[in-house]
Amino acid sequence: MRIATGCIGHETNTFSSVPTTIDDFKRSYRIGDEIISAFRQTSTITGGFIENSEKLGIQIIPLLWTFATPSGAVEQEAYDTLKGEFLDHLRNAGQIDGVFLDLHGAMATEEIEDAEGDLIRSVREIVGSLPIVVTLDLHANITAEMAKHSDTIIGFDTYPHVDCYDRGVEAAQVVSDIVRGNIRPTMAYRQLPFLTSPPAQCTMKPLMSGIVERLHALEAEPGVVTATLSMGFPFADIRDAGVSVLVTTDDDQQLAETHANEFAHYIWDIRDAFNLNLVSVEEAIEIANQSEGQPIVLAEGSDNPGGGGPCDGTIILRKFIDADVQNAVIAIIADPESVSLAIDAGVGNTVALNVGGKTIPLHGEPVALTGYVKTISDGAYINKGPMARGVRNSLGRAAVVKVGGVEIILTERRVQPIDAEVLRSVGIEPRDRKLIVLKSAVHFRADYTPIAHEILEVDTPGVHSPDLFSYDYQKVRRPIYPLDTAVEF
Ligand SMILES: [Zn+2]
């Protein structure tokens, strides 16, 4: 059995003014066997797909795999080029029995709101009736178009996304079962008029963990192949942003429809529970001052580069310096210019910098400071926490500059600091710090929950702010909860 696989991946934050270019995709661009060697023995979707495929006797035909760090709309030319290459590889794949697509599900180009819908349809046009199995992130804005052209869609069950490997394993099983004629998948799709914010979607918190338990119970029902609750990506202002439910059964459309209806209404009925408790930076400093324990982690979701934040916001840095906060670390501020100056100054010397605030005005102005260069690093590290364990990552060149009691991790690249190895790779043991600012909404919880004394979700403005009322939505379908009152479902 020969199954072609690949990915063009992006989570597009349409509120970001930073376009996503072909260069942003080139960093992770791999073709053919490079894909296998990059993902084998990693806790990733494609990693899980590879391992289970080998057990199931699937010969993988790797096409093209690329994923750009989330930012603004994908330049049309970049998408057209990558899609063209992807489809060329597919046409040249020889005889195949099916396709597995490892996609995110919230990519928008300058001209196409639903890029995955466009890509899956294009794959369908080439492969005809062969099975197409797709995995999507929990933040996918799933559209009717994506559902229509896929045989089965499998979404993540976790946020932090620690089940990527398992979903890849599941995808290999499902595609193998379809090709062997063991199942005939039929899928029901429901879209809810509902936007939720990332911190409320965390499956390590009781609300979502209870929901996922029910989802798993649904998957255990007779005749059900797989079920997905996608929480959506609210920072893509497109018609189809938000929550959706998919249920796949073995050749029973009515059963799929009934289960999808019931689950969608169960979520709708508890929509009020998705409220957030954000704290101001001042409150967070006060809580840390009163606390005996450490570290206190401040999640600054608004500047999360994993969802399109610029990762150079300075609002907390400014407030920390003004409040003379001690034993604190800010992870991270992406600022290649300051990294260069710190490296030129050298370890043990002081350097004058204009730190951060260079991308989107909403995230604060550059902070002029004179700091002590404590560490210089090549920025290489390997994830050791539960999410994407084993994956090699790079901050680009990095420097730790200390001003008063605040260490700033300056990097060349925008990287979501989900893994504590980000700190350790530049010589900082997180347990030794009182305050740790992480430019991450939820993913950091997988690695930091065991070591954090307390985790606070901090309220700062930005293009990834958890406060959905801070955005000027133009394109999302209306009415939609919670932006509108009296929404019917
Ligand atoms: Zn996600």
Concise description?
By secondary structure, this protein is of the alpha/beta class. It has helices at 22-26, 33-39, 45-56, 76-91, 115-127, 144-149, 164-179, 206-219, 253-269, 281-290, 315-322, 336-345, 421-424, 445-448; strands spanning 2-9, 30-31, 59-67, 98-102, 132-136, 152-155, 185-191, 224-230, 244-250, 296-299, 328-334, 350-355, 367-377, 380-382, 392-394, 398-403, 406-411, 435-438, 454-457. Helix 3 packs parallel to helix 7 (164-179) and helix 4 packs parallel to helix 5.
Walk me through what this model shows.
The chain is of the alpha/beta class and 489 residues long. The chain folds into two domains: 273 residues, 3-Layer(aba) Sandwich (Rossmann fold), CATH 3.40.50.2300; 186 residues, no CATH class. Helices cover 29% and strands 22% of the residues. The strands form four sheets. An eight-stranded mixed beta sheet has the order 12-13-16-17-11-18-10-19. Strands 2-3-1-4-5-6 form a six-stranded mixed beta sheet, with helices on both faces. The mean pLDDT is 97. The protein binds zinc ion (ZN). The site of zinc ion has 4 residues, from loops.
